[in-house]
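User: My advisor, Dr. K., asked me to get a structural model of this assembly before our group meeting. I'm new to this, so sorry if the format is off. These are the inputs:
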Amino acid sequence: MTPIRSADELSPGMSFDLGTFVLAREEVLDFARKFDPQPFHLDDEAAKASIFGRLVASGMHTLSAAVAHLLRSGLLAEVNLGAGGMQLNWPAPLDPDTPVRLTVTVEAVRASRSKPEMAVVTLRYAGVTEPAGATVLDLVAPHFMRR
Amino acid sequence: MTPIRSADELSPGMSFDLGTFVLAREEVLDFARKFDPQPFHLDDEAAKASIFGRLVASGMHTLSAAVAHLLRSGLLAEVNLGAGGMQLNWPAPLDPDTPVRLTVTVEAVRASRSKPEMAVVTLRYAGVTEPAGATVLDLVAPHFMRR
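Assistant: The format is fine. Below is the predicted structure of the whole assembly, which you can bring to the meeting.
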């Protein structure tokens, strides 16, 4: 993806289709063993009795994989300085081996109060499964970016 | 830690000291390679020129490790059904090999509207480094729990 060269190229409403990523079953289990060892992320039988009814990916895995996918796209490689926080929702759980299309939309752009060479760009990340169309990630995050 | 047996045991203001966890430098690099491949999480020299001034852990790693630490404490093992979203802040970045004390405080408890056997318990996670006292994680998350 062609990298953005300055936060000044971004304006509210701009949207970027970043293609799809997949969390393979083995990756889902590996992440859950390390960071989210709960029955509904680790064991098919136990997961059947959970509120999800089946084994699903850790929401933190969905989050981390989406951010990784954005970073690897190169879109923000020349401008991103870090993210300042997040409002995070998982409207639907993510099944292993299911493609997730990631779209990032610019919600707001403002100059930094203290540092004129920086802007705070609020991005909304939407992860939607294919072909079912379930939203598995809805994330709003302010990013510090170079201008 | 003695597991909670019902969300009804929890009330606003209750607080649980879960002890400390550490992200070793190799784990920090490994997480960053997989999920947050940015110079300030991967390379000491490049990190010096970043807004952090040094190599720091991915905020998603701090988050995931804190949740893992809470889960491994066993406190919620008998009640937790899943978390519904998060408001997430990283007031300070986390250095590798630095102990983080995790405290979880109950902010609110309410019965589920649709499922009387469930409650929604809002927990606030605070991760504070030792001995410096820097807050590296401030997380508010509604958890669905058994009553």
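One thing worth pointing out at the meeting: Chain B touches chain A through 30 residues (CB under 8 Å).

User: Perfect, thanks a lot.
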